C-alpha cells in the first residue's frame, strides 16, 4: 500500500534540548517527519506536549536539509557539538523514507559538520544507512563532557514495548515486528556499532512482569544489545486520538480484565504510582545484572546510580 505523505516547510529542524540527559545524550533532537505511521497505540506524542507542533496525518519536512545546513553550520562554528537524537517524536525510518531518503540526506549533512548521533528506530531500513553512520562514527566530535564517557559518536537504539509478536501486533500495528528489530540490532552489532535496547514503554501487567522482562532481556542480549534503558507507560489526553483514550479502548477490546487494574495504577496521573515505577526499575536493574548488560549508554554508567546496589 502506498503511504500518503504531505510536504511541509519548517523554520527550524534542530532543537536544542535544555538538558542533555544521561539516558539519550540528546544535546539536540531532530525529526524529519511530523507524525508517525507506525501508529503505536501508546504513542506519547498523541495528547502530550511532545505532539503539540505536529500537523494531522503524516508529513515530511521537505526543507529540513536546507535548514539543517544553516543550523549546524552555526553550531559548528561555535563548537557547540552534541549528540543529535534522531527519532524522539517520530521514527526516522518510516516506510516512506525508503523512497524519500530524507533521513539519509540529513545524516550526510551531519557527517559534513561532524556531529555525533543517536538513532532511535524500530525499522530495518536503518541498515541502508550504515555506510554513512560508520563515517559519522569516525569523524564525530564529542562534546568535552562526554569524551571520557563515550567510545563512539554513533549510537543505534531499538525500541521495544515487548518482544512478543502477538502483543506487538495489538499495540504497535504499523511497526516492524520484534523479530525484525532483533535481527536488525544483531546486524548493527555485527557491523561494530554501539547498540541499545530501549524498553519504552513497558506495558503494565503485560510486558512489565519479571517473566516477560527476563525474556526481553535475554533476547536483546542474544542479539547484541550493549545496554538497556527502560521505563513505564505514560498516558495523556482525553480526545479520541490521544494515547490515553486509545490505550484504554484497545485494552477494553483485548484485555478487559486489565482495565480496572490499570486505571487504579494511574489514578488521576499521566504516570503510574511512584512505587510501581521504583519496583519496575528494580526488576530491570536486577535482571540486567543477571544477564551482564548495563543500564546506560555510557561505557561505565548506570542510570540507576546506586539506588539498588545494597
Ligand atoms: S514509533 Fe514512536 S513515534 Fe512512532 S507511533 Fe510508535 S511510539 Fe509513536
From TrEMBL:
Key words of the record: Iron, Iron-sulfur, Metal-binding
InterPro entries, per the entry: Elp3/MiaA/NifB-like_rSAM, MJ0683-like, rSAM, rSAM_sf
PROSITE patterns referenced in this protein's UniProt entry, alphabetically: RADICAL_SAM
Domain Radical SAM core: 19-261
Coiled-coil regions, chain positions: none
Entry-linked CDD domains: Radical_SAM
Domain of life: Archaea
GO terms assigned for molecular function: catalytic activity; iron-sulfur cluster binding; metal ion binding
SMART domains: Elp3 (SM00729)
PANTHER family: ELP3_MIAA_NIFB-LIKE RADICAL SAM CORE DOMAIN-CONTAINING PROTEIN, SLR0285 PROTEIN
Protein's name in the database: Radical SAM domain-containing protein
Amino acid at each position: 500500500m502506498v503511504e500518503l505523505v504531505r510536504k511541509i516547510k519548517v523554520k527550524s529542524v534542530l532543537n536544542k534540548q535544555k538538558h542533555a540527559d544521561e539516558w539519550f545524550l540528546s544535546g539536540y533532537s531532530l525529526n524529519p517527519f511530523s507524525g508517525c505511521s507506525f501508529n503505536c497505540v501508546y504513542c506519547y506524542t498523541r495528547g502530550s506536549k511532545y505532539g503539540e507542533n505536529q500537523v494531522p496525518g503524516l508529513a515530511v519536512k521537505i526543507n529540513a536539509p536546507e535548514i539543517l545546513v544553516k543550523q549546524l553550520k552555526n553550531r559548528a562554528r561555535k563548537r557547540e557539538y552534541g549528540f543529535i537524537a534522531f527519532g524522539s517524536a517520530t521514527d526516522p525510518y518510516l516506510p516512506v523514507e525508503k523512497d524519500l531518503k530524507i533521513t539519509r540526506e540529513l545524516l550526510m549533512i551531519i557527517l559534513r559538520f561532524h556531529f555525533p548521533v543517536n538513532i532511535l528506530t524500530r525499522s530495518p531500513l536503518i541498515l541502508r544507512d550504515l555506510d554513512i553512520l560508520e563515517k559519522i562514527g569516525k569523524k564525530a566530535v564529542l562534546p568535552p563532557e562526554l569524551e571520557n564517557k563515550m567510545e563512539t559518536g554513533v549510537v543505534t537504539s531499538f525500541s521495544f514495548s515487548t518482544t512478543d509478536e502477538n502483543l506487538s501486533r495489538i499495540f504497535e500495528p504499523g511497526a516492524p515486528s520484534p523479530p525484525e528489530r532483533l535481527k536488525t540490532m544483531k546486524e548493527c552489532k555485527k557491523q561494530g556499532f554501539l547498540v541499545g535496547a530501549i524498553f519504552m514503554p513497558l506495558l503494565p501487567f503485560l510486558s512489565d512482569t519479571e517473566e516477560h522482562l527476563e525474556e526481553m532481556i535475554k533476547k536483546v542480549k542474544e542479539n547484541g544489545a550493549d545496554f538497556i534503558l527502560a521505563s513505564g507507560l505514560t498516558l495523556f489526553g482525553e480526545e479520541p486520538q490521544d494515547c490515553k483514550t486509545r490505550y484504554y479502548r484497545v485494552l477494553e477490546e483485548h484485555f478487559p480484565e486489565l482495565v480496572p487494574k490499570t486505571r487504579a495504577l494511574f489514578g488521576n496521573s499521566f504516570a503510574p504510582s511512584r512505587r510501581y515505577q521504583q519496583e519496575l526499575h528494580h526488576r530491570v536493574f536486577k535482571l540486567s545484572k543477571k544477564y551482564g548488560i548495563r543500564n546506560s549508554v555510557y561505557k561505565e554508567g548506570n542510570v540507576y546510580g546506586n539506588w539498588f546496589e545494597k
